[in-house]
User: Fold this.
Amino acid sequence: MPETWSIAELAAEYDVTLRTIRFYEDRGLLTPERRGTTRVYHPRDRIRLALILRGKRLGFSLDEIAKIVDMYDAEPGEEGQLVYLLNQITHRRAELEQRRQDIEQTLQDLSEVEARCRTDLRALRNR
Assistant:
């Protein structure tokens, strides 16, 4: 018999709430087996949960994550999934690089304003 997990076991393993797992289930990202009112998660669900959480850490939206994990099971399969993922990584990296540049510019602007304020404050105090 294949290994299975309860919702509580998966939540503990991945340090997420039961509500988070149920949310992913409601979005169709996870499809556990039902035995009465009990959810039974199989290896496929466990792998999908790991991929969802990794995608979230990388900043992908749930729609993007859904497309990536669903591609594995459908045409064009793993190759299409990997090509799509590489394109998404390129796009995400460009967004983050732009954010980094924006942050660096903002920090530089703040330093310049701070220096002017300090100069003006010294001038006022030395009157």
In short: Strands lie at 33-35, 38-40.
